[in-house]
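Figure caption, in words: inputs first, then the predicted bound structure.
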Amino acid sequence: MAAPKKLRTMFGADDELQAFAEHWLSGPGCLSGASSLAHTDGAMVACLYRDSTFQVELCCVPPGFVIPDHVHPHADTIEVPVAGVLRLHVNGKDVYAGRCDERVQRLNRGSGIRINHTDVHGTAAPVGETGAMFLSIQKWLGCEPLSVLTDYLGRPLGEGHQEMLDAANL
Ligand SMILES: [Fe+2]
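Bound structure (fe (ii) ion present):
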């Protein structure tokens, strides 16, 4: 079997999560475990893969969407943009500050951004006119995988999301 393709990851680490991300992205059957879809307040999150430690979700947000600052307290993640322009804000820093949308898309192509479970993140600007999709490749810490929609501390995406968080009671 061929070695997994290297994934260039901003803030990345040479660890199990990076190795899983490269392995999963290189596999011919990476979508064969797709199982469930959750949506709220215009955002959709589809589970593409889940085992007892690792999970991959496809997150889709519409044009103009704003993701408030938040953390996922039980998951380290690598976010891999798939389409659209998503300008991330990580620990108070706009990671693409000063770069035009075209440059952000070029930088994003085939690369990832590491966001650990203590990293406060959200969008630095509303999502562009085509909306945005990104893979969230996750390693779960001390519990079985949940959705990043419910393992979420911060201002919710909207009323529906608040109800989802209340029901999850985390
Ligand atoms: Fe997040």
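Residues 70, 72, 121, 148 surround fe (ii) ion (CB under 6 Å).
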